[in-house]
Every structure is written in structure tokens, then in C-alpha cells.
Q: What sequence folds into this?
């Protein structure tokens, strides 16, 4: 038996630039003598490695200006 789904409150959304995969491993050259591949961790420049971006404030009727 399943219960009611709890309400979720989110204050962040997935980064559109990295799609939530905020850090990538980039190879930085050929393998060394022991066979290891040197890699560098690179963070997404848009979200700074968090994978989320803050929500934009919601517009209200008072914020909208109508041109005549």
C-alpha cells in the first residue's frame, strides 16, 4: 500500500548548461609509464560545479507593464 505523495519544495533547478552533471573528468595527455591516464576535474562555468541554478522570481501582475 502506498501513501500520499509528500509535497516537495525545491529552491533550485537543474543547470541548463551541464544538465546536472556539474563536474567532468578531462584527460590531460597520454598515459604515463605506469599506465595511468592523467585527468583533471573541470567544473561547469555556469553553475560553478553545483549542478543547479537558483529559481528566477515569479512575475506578478504588478511587475508587468503594458505599453499603449
A:
Amino acid at each position: 500500500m502506498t501513501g500520499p505523495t509528500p509535497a516537495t519544495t525545491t529552491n533550485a533547478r537543474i543547470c541548463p548548461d551541464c544538465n546536472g552533471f556539474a563536474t567532468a573528468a578531462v584527460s590531460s595527455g597520454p598515459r604515463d609509464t605506469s599506465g595511468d591516464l592523467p585527468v583533471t576535474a573541470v567544473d561547469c562555468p555556469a553553475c560553478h560545479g553545483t549542478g543547479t541554478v537558483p529559481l528566477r522570481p515569479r512575475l506578478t501582475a504588478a511587475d508587468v507593464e503594458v505599453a499603449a
